[in-house]
Amino acid sequence: MIAFLLIGAAYGWFRAGKLGGTRADRVQYAAGFGLAFTVIGLILALVITRSF
């Protein structure tokens, strides 16, 4: 799940930079995408755990 958080934060940071955002925009995008990717990772972990 930590990997999903880091991947999501990096993706958000670069996406905001690509859109021409300021540092505050990059931090906000990194936080938002980090949380979203963490939720996805949590759901995947639960599905994998329940299926075995």
TrEMBL record:
This is Apolipoprotein acyltransferase. The chain crosses the membrane at residues 26-48. It comes from the Bacteria. Keywords: Membrane, Transmembrane, Transmembrane helix. It comes from Paracoccus cavernae.
